[in-house]
């Protein structure tokens, strides 16, 4: 068991829990829940849909608790980028980027995160706010007509420290 007790976690929250458990197995025995760390790995690899799913598994366990909105915010942030990448995802081959929903989800994520302390679960929220503000600004800049992922370096979140 790790120092924070994350070597075991509920692996049966949703029908996706099996693949999520396998996806984050290498992150067990760290200070943070492996699904939380797996979110950052997926997000930084541009696997926004997977990041959403990995963290949703943890969020479902924490609904009604203090951290639920924190995880919900990060899920919404990934969801915003899912909307920007819809044209690239084979799951939605006919879809194009959905700039307004992306912008809205990122704003909602920011709103939820604002109620947490400056550093929460090892994540420096000011850096997350800067990322959100940057991407929302890029979407607004061309009046919701141009997907900034076409010209911007993909987003990256600093992995929380142990």
List the helices and strands and how they pair.
Layout: H1 17-23, H2 34-44, H3 48-62, H4 68-84, H5 99-113, E1 119-120, E2 123-124, H6 125-141
Antiparallel strand pairs: 1-2
Number of strands: 2
CATH fold-level label? Hyaluronidase domain-like
Tell me the radius of gyration.
16 Å
Largest sheet: 2 strands, antiparallel
Mean of residue pLDDT values: 86
Shape: globular
Instruction: Give the strand content.
Output: under 5%
Terminal Cα span: 15 Å
Uncertain segments are 1-9
Please identify, by name, the CATH architecture: Orthogonal Bundle
Helicity, as a percent range:
40-55%
How many domains would you count in the coordinates? 1
Across the major sheet, the strand order is: 1-2
Supply the CATH class. Mainly Alpha
Considering the chains and any ligands shown, give keywords for the structure.
Hyaluronidase domain-like; two-stranded antiparallel ribbon; 6 helices; disordered N terminus; 51% helix; globular; single chain; 162 residues; mainly alpha; 2 strands
Describe the 3D structure:
The protein has a two-stranded antiparallel ribbon. Helix 2 packs antiparallel against helix 3, helix 3 runs antiparallel to helix 4 and helix 5 packs antiparallel against helix 6. It has 162 residues and is mainly alpha-helical. The protein is globular and about 45 Å long. Helix content is 51%, strand content 2%. The N terminus is likely disordered. The protein is built from 6 helices and 2 strands; from the N terminus they run αααααββα. It has one domain: TTHA0068-like (Hyaluronidase domain-like, Orthogonal Bundle), CATH 1.10.3450.10.
């Amino acid at each position: 068991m790790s120092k924070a007790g994350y070597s075991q976690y509920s692996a049966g929250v949703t029908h996706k829990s099996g693949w999520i458990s396998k996806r984050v197995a290498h992150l067990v025995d760290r200070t943070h829940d492996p699904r939380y760390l797996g979110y950052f790995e997926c997000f930084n690899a541009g696997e926004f849909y997977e990041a959403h799913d990995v963290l949703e598994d943890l969020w479902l366990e924490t609904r009604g608790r203090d951290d639920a909105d924190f995880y919900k915010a990060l899920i919404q942030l990934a969801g915003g980028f899912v909307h920007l990448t819809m044209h690239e995802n084979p799951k939605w081959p006919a879809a194009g980027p959905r700039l307004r929903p992306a912008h809205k989800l990122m704003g909602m994520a920011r709103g939820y995160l604002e109620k947490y302390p400056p550093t929460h679960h090892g994540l420096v929220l000011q850096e997350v706010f800067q990322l959100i503000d940057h991407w929302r600004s890029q979407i607004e800049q061309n009046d919701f007509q141009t997907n900034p992922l076409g010209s911007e370096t993909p987003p990256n979140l600093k992995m929380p420290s142990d």
